[in-house]
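hey can u check if this looks right to u? its 419 residues, i copy pasted from the old doc so theres a chance i mangled smth
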Amino acid sequence: MTFKIITLGCKVNAYESEIMKELLIKAGYKEENDKPEVVIINTCSVTNMADSKSRKMVRRYKRENPDTILIVCGCSTQNNKEEYEKMDIDILLGNKDKSKIVTLINNYKNNHEKYFKFYDDRDLEFEDMNVDKFSSHTRAFVKIQDGCNNFCSYCIIPYVRGNIRSKDFTKTLEEIKRLVDNGHKEIVLTGIHTGSYGYGLNYDLSDLLSEMAKIEGLERIRISSIEVTELNDKFLEELKNNKKICNHMHIPLQAGSDEILKKMNRKYNLDYFFNKINEIRNIRPDISITTDVIVGHPYETNELFEKTIDTCKKLKFAKIHVFPYSKRDGTASSRMPNQVDEHEKKLRSHKLIEVSNELESNYNNKFIGKKLDVLIEEVNNNIAIGHTSNYLRVELNGDYQKNRIYNVEIKKEYLSNEK
């Protein structure tokens, strides 16, 4: 049979979709984009827009491919079970049992009975998944952690992903070694709350980074995202000594005022954040630090928003991922008064994006004329696209080979703001 997987949302979803794809191919299924017999939609629920996009995708594929076996899973289904149960879906899952995809499809083919399965308990075990090779990326993602215990007031993810849990240390290293043996030079560690890896166990993220550095053939270790509260002395020492860790860190700020950070139930204040960023830059002066910021959270006045702009400029981020606040039913923020008008959220978003563009340009320009290593990820019509360790996106003309690292003198025309 033929299949197609549509992935919405984060790198964790991308990893889990890659797992399903690999399992299906090993079982004799073939990937097909035009008229697949099986369609899997891996949904996202991080915002209302993500939920809406997920539902539209389901309706579209059912309308256009009525005879296709339709499987829907992920955060949006977990968050909106009743709504998805009313749709004409053949196999409906939450965030668990994606690793059983082959068995679920084969059972459906045999009995033609619709299958819906959800787990409501937050106390879940880590669902073991292993991928051998990422077919569509030079870099490979490895999901080392799932779940979140933070319960930020605006966020639905702890309710749809469950408790913090980690992949076994030995199994994680075995998967990474296998990916490196299969040609991947860069490994991206990902999770819902990646920095909490090993929570409650006798190992942590720093231990994993230290062991990864010993793997021959692994050139780069990238961390998808990490909370500022997890940058302890042990981690900073590893950052100092481990040269394979990429010169880029994504550290969510979320708000640039103590007042809104407190409303968000974030676990730090601005002084703490500034001090940690200074510690990182004392270790690696040229590091790229990118961030997430939510604009228009309840109680955010124009004055507090301007404070966020000022904070971002002072922190000199290399890029800001800007998100208008999305009211998620069931979260503490959704019940707060002083909700910000949608039009005002859009205005603030545009303003902060302009700040991000300026900061990104300032950061990129510092490297013009310098030589940096570029890992080539795409080659099309004599145009090669890749990233530096500090995540500059570089476009080169000439004879370059995919999945090789070249030392390149950076020129302004090589740089692109797309990331």
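Residues 282-366 form a domain with the Transcription Regulator spoIIAA fold (CATH 3.30.750.200).
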